[in-house]
Amino acid sequence: MREHPEAFEEAKRYEKTALEHGSPFTWSDRESLDELAKPERVAQIEREYAIRVERLRARLRPNALRPQGEQPEMALEDDGAGCLVCHK
Q1: What own/partner pairs with CB < 8 Å and gap ≥ 24 does 40-45 have?
Q2: Rounded average pLDDT over 60-67
Q3: Measured distance CA(41)–CA(70) in Å, rounded
Q4: For residue 39, with 0-12 CB atoms within 10 Å meaning exposed, 13-18 middle and 19 or more buried, which class applies?
Q5: From CA 75, how far away is CA 67, in angstroms rounded?
Q6: pLDDT tens figures, 9-41
Q7: Which residues contact 84 (CB under 8 A, 6 or more apart)?
Q8: Which residues contact 27 (CB under 8 A, 6 or more apart)?
Q9: Are 22 and 39 in contact (CB under 8 A)?
Q10: Dihedral class, residue 25 (left if φ above 0, else alpha if ψ from -120 to 50, else beta)
Q11: How far apart are CA 7 and CA 62, in angstroms?
């Protein structure tokens, strides 16, 4: 929605078109993009994201190969094994 507002609006139109033609379709199983874009829902998503990032940050093990200051969400793909050169 914030990164690509035009694409988000286009996706919302696809949902409406599907509903108008009797074929309910939403990008998410539980809510439409209109519902997802409501300010209170956006705030809830942002709060939940901040909690997940803090949990990840707390579990993040030091890794000499990870640049200092790297965002913890970037480490989600880090399995801790290291690269082939450093892995023993």
Answers
A1: 42/1
A2: 71
A3: 28
A4: exposed
A5: 11
A6: 999 988 888 778 888 788 888 888 999 999 999
A7: none
A8: 11, 15, 33
A9: no
A10: beta
A11: 38
Q: By the 8 A CB rule, do 74 and 53 touch?
A: no
Longest dimension (CA), the chain: 59
What single letter denotes the amino acid at residue 40? E
Instruction: Report residue 62 as tokens.
Output: 């030091």
* Residue 61: both structure tokens together: 């093990």
Q: What is the pLDDT of residue 61?
A: 76
Q: How many CB atoms lie within 10 A of CB 23?
A: 8
For 10-37, give the DSSP string: HHHHHHHHHHHTT----SSSS--HHHHT
The candidate with the shortest Cα–Cα distance to 59, out of 51, 9, 8, 6, is 51
Tell me the residue type at 70. E
